[in-house]
Design goal:
Elements (H helix, E strand, L loop, with lengths): L1 E2 L3 H21 L14 E4 L12 H11 L10 E3 L12 H16 L14 H23 L7 H21 L31 H16 L2 H16 L5 H9 L4 H12 L17 H17 L4 E5 L8 H12 L3 E4 L6 H11 L3 E6 L4 H14 L7 E5 L3 H10 L3 E3 L6 H15 L1
Parallel strand pairs: 1-2, 2-3, 4-5, 4-6, 6-7, 7-8
């Protein structure tokens, strides 16, 4: 589950979830044991709302989101995963993670929260909102069932998520949705929490080399014949549509690595690429949008074809919201946008950029591995004589790293503080035009 800042609504959402879980378990699946129908869930407090601007305010945001899933006993989370206050700045340090952990411990051990029954029981306001959300969820479940079930409706559901976030982003840009420190109350004193070179976690470069060395040592000491036989048996089970679990256990006992196991299955099944949720045509409005549309049209005429932007997410980072919104806004202003989703290799991204004849390449990286990944993309682009194609990078990137990226040849770097996406589109037009 996920929890957002509108904590009264979020509390009602979880109460509605409990109600629906019990209802569906009883009526659809015939579960008669009331205890077996209890909704036991873990929650990840939302990182989407964390801000780079005045990042210290994120402590309050995290606390309020925690209360949303803990105040109501009947709908209380069994496990809560809290982000760190500075995740929009860079990788959190152990101390930052500890601070979030202490929030849970103080709530559990120093307050009287756990001493009472559900404090919302009998509230007409809470009950009305809970009932409203439950009814809306039932209607959505019927709609998904009519589409053929969840698997058949994945593309529809993903599209709805992207569209909902698009509306949220545009509301922040226009000021209709207030975010303290971002589009209102922006004047602030310098934060001592962000001072110094060690204000975020940095990864020792030797860690990667050490891990590779240990992996090679592991492979060298195992019985090679047993490992190869186990992999072959796994592939055979997959090809014959048999249960792969017994063969997977044999692989584990033979010392087969996760990478080898997944590659063996990938060779049989191929690789699934989920829907991106980014519609081919995005309808949006505003004077800024119209101005950039005109600029895109003019540059496209100058180039002799539609301005083309390739958006890529390299590495293991699965946080796709930013990339999706960049892709959506690019289409909204008239660009030809190519976006294939998450977890692509630098080689795949550069190959796609060359094939699509992209005028610009944008990378979204939130995993902290931006320096290595961008360096590899730059190297491959140069090898393909794509020096004239501007490379733009966005993500959780500390200022020192942003400077290093520019020194590598990156044309522009954007971080969460750059929340006006239409302005980014205008910058891309300018960068491409300067090299046309």
């Amino acid at each position: 589950m996920n929890a957002g800042l509108r904590f009264v609504t979020e509390t009602c959402k979880m109460r509605a979830f409990v109600r629906l879980w019990d209802e569906i378990g009883r009526d659809r699946y015939g579960v008669s044991d009331e205890k077996a129908r209890r909704f036991r869930y873990g929650v990840q407090v939302n990182s989407l709302g964390l801000t780079e601007n005045q990042a210290e305010n994120n402590v309050y945001r995290i606390l309020l989101e925690t209360l949303a899933v803990t105040l109501s006993k009947d709908a209380r989370a069994r496990a809560v995963q809290l982000p760190a206050w500075n995740e929009a700045l860079g990788l959190p340090r152990p101390w930052d993670q500890q601070w979030s952990l202490r929030m849970q411990q103080i709530l559990a051990y120093e307050t009287d929260l756990l001493e009472f029954e559900d404090v919302f029981e009998g509230s007409k306001v809470i009950e009305a909102k809970t009932a409203e959300l439950a009814e809306g969820a039932r209607a959505e479940l019927k709609r998904i069932a009519a589409l053929g079930g969840a698997a058949a409706a994945i593309e529809t559901m993903k599209g709805a998520l992207v569209e909902s976030n698009r509306q949220r982003v545009e509301a922040i840009e226009s000021g209709a949705m207030k975010v303290v420190g971002v589009n209102c109350f922006t004047e602030a004193e310098p934060s001592p929490l962000e001072a110094g070179e060690k204000s975020i976690q940095t990864v020792d470069l030797s860690v990667e080399a050490d891990q590779i060395a240990r992996l090679k040592a592991w492979r060298a000491q195992r019985n090679r014949a047993e490992a190869e036989a186990a992999i072959a048996a796994l592939q055979a089970a997959a090809q014959e549509a048999r249960n792969v679990m017994p063969a997977s256990l044999t692989c584990a006992k033979a010392g087969v690595t996760t990478g080898e196991w997944s590659q063996a299955l990938r060779a049989v099944y191929g690789e699934y690429r989920g829907p991106t949720g980014v519609a081919l045509v995005i309808e949006t409005g505003g004077d800024d949008i119209e101005a950039v549309k005109r600029d895109v049209a003019a540059l496209s005429e100058k180039l002799g074809r539609q301005l083309s932007l390739l958006v890529g997410k390299p590495g293991l980072d699965g946080h796709s919201n930013g990339a999706e919104q960049i892709a959506a806004r690019g289409r909204a202003v008239g660009m030809e946008v190519h976006y294939e989703g998450i977890r692509l290799t630098p080689r795949e991204i550069v190959a796609a950029a060359k094939e699509k004849r992209a005028h610009a390449v944008g990378l979204s990286i939130l995993s902290g591995s931006h320096l290595d990944l961008v360096q590899e993309v730059v190297r491959l682009m140069r090898a393909e004589d794509m020096d004239a194609v501007p490379l733009i990078v966005g993500g959780i990137i500390p200022p020192a790293d942003a400077l290093a990226l520019r020194q590598m040849g990156v044309a522009a770097v954007y971080t969460p503080k750059d929340f006006k996406i239409t302005a980014i589109m205008s910058d891309i037009v300018r960068l491409v035009d300067a090299r046309a």
